[in-house]
Amino acid sequence: MQYVYLTGEASKQTRFPLPFEHHASLADALFDSGGLPTITANISQIYILRKRSSGSPIAAYRFDFSNAANLVLATEFQLRPNDVIFAAEQPITKWHRVIQQITPSLITTGVGATN
């Protein structure tokens, strides 16, 4: 079985099994895996990373799905075994995660200071 890997801000970080004939589109992989959460994923920065057989070791394809018309490209882009689909995060998602990590330590420090 051959796979395509979904990572980054995908709804579910997983591997998508390519059918026996190895024909599947980017849309197939995204929608079968649950899509992209628009709250955390930056849908204007979706990348396909593919190992090349010659020349530069990796090819990167960028998709901007903030324009719905570009979704047609997802139905036409054929995936290959071992492709990696990477969804970048929203800028606000980075800040949210920083705050989530700082908040427990601030609360713990505040509780310790009152004793």
SS strand fraction = 25-35%
Taking the sheet with the most strands, its summary is: 5 strands, mixed
* Strands side by side in the biggest sheet: 2-1-5-3-4
The quaternary structure here is single chain
| Silhouette | elongated
Mean pLDDT: 84
Structural class: alpha+beta
- Low-pLDDT stretches are none
Radius of gyration: 19 Å
> What level of helicity do the residues show?
25-40%
Number of strands: 5
Q: Tally the helices: what do you get? A: 3
Q: Give the distance, in angstroms, between the N- and C-terminal Cα atoms.
A: 59 Å
Order of helices and strands: EEHEEHEH
Can you put this structure into words, describing what you see?
By secondary structure, the chain is α+β, with helices and mostly antiparallel strands. Helices cover 32% and strands 29% of the residues. It contains 3 helices and 5 strands, in the order ββαββαβα. The chain has helices at 26-32, 71-76, 91-114; strands at residues 3-8, 14-17, 41-51, 58-63, 84-89. Strands 2-1-5-3-4 form a 5-stranded mixed beta sheet. Strand 3 and strand 4 form a beta hairpin. The longest helix is centred in the last third of the chain and has 24 residues, at 91-114. The relative contact order is 0.22. The mean pLDDT is 84.
Summed up:
The chain has 115 residues and is an alpha+beta fold. Strands 2-1-5-3-4 form a five-stranded mixed beta sheet. Strand 1 and strand 2 form a beta hairpin.
